[in-house]
Amino acid sequence: MSLNHPIVEQSFAIIDREIGKHNLNPSEYAISRRVIHTTADFDYLNLLEFKHNGISSALVALQNGIPIVTDVTMVKQGIKTLVGKTFNNPIIAAIDFADVALPGKTRTETGLLKCWSKYPDAVYVIGNAPTALIALCECLKKQNKIIPPLIIGAPVGFVSVIESKQALKQLEIPQIIVKGRKGGSPVAAAIVNALLVLAKEG
Questions:
Q1: Residue 29's closest CA among 3, 55, 5, 53?
Q2: Model pTM?
Q3: What number of CA atoms fall less than 13 Å from residue 180's CA on the CB side?
Q4: Alpha-carbon distance 163 to 98, whole Å?
Q5: Which domains does the chain have, with CATH numbers?
Q6: Which end of the chain is least crowded, N or C, by CB within 10 Å?
Q7: Is the pLDDT of residue 1 over 80?
Q8: Which tens digit of pLDDT belongs to each residue from 47-76?
Q9: Over 90: is that where the pLDDT of 96 sits?
């Protein structure tokens, strides 16, 4: 039984027809196609970057019920349904861990630092806050023992966004990055949902 709603499958068929030939492997394409379905933006066929065996590492982690840490609640809400239909991974929104921001930091960044201390081996999903992604990269640079199974770097916007993605790219950590300024919570959630389907059906 497919985890996808019939309308989603119809949309995928339309996307397949419009894209035609491409250079992505089946798993990369499944993720890109779901993001395109979510955004109606075909640029994502070329904007997603998959590095350091991020997909295969994430599939194993999800199947084993590893926690998923999101930066904001919107990403958490966007993956909750499919998590419930697949592996029931704990989902933690970093922003919920910080009622007040630490001096000089955002609430999301503050919450992310707390999540890192509690869930260092989680799948990390950043769809909104570049400050949280930068903080996570700084934590990883300070140690080399713990390697998360996947970091999704998909913050959107203009301030510190490209810098945060560059910081992630410099780390030899399993990762999926949205290149440039595009991204956002719906995109980050779509990437996770595609991974959940691949992990369940694979």
A1: 55
A2: 0.96
A3: 6
A4: 24
A5: 46-201 (3.40.50.10230)
A6: N
A7: no
A8: 999 999 999 999 999 999 999 999 999 999
A9: yes
Is pLDDT at 162 greater than 90 in this prediction?
yes
Helix 185-201 and helix 26-39, axial crossing angle in degrees, nearest 10: 140
Distance CA 10, CA 192 (A): 20
Among the options 5, 22, 37, 52, which is catalytic?
A: 37
| DSSP secondary structure string for all residues of 85-122 | HTT---EEEGGGG-SSPPTTS-HHHHHHHHHHHH-TTS
Could you please report the per-residue DSSP string of the chain?
A: --SS-HHHHHHHHHHHHHH-S-S--HHHHHHHHHHHHHH--TTHHHHEEEETTHHHHHHHHHHTT--EEESSHHHHHHHHHHHHHTT---EEEGGGG-SSPPTTS-HHHHHHHHHHHH-TTSEEEESS-HHHHHHHHHHHHT-SS---S-EEE---SSSSHHHHHHHHHTS-S-EEEE-TT---HHHHHHHHHHHHHHHHH-
53 φ, ψ (degrees, to nearest 5) = 55, 35
22 is catalytic: no
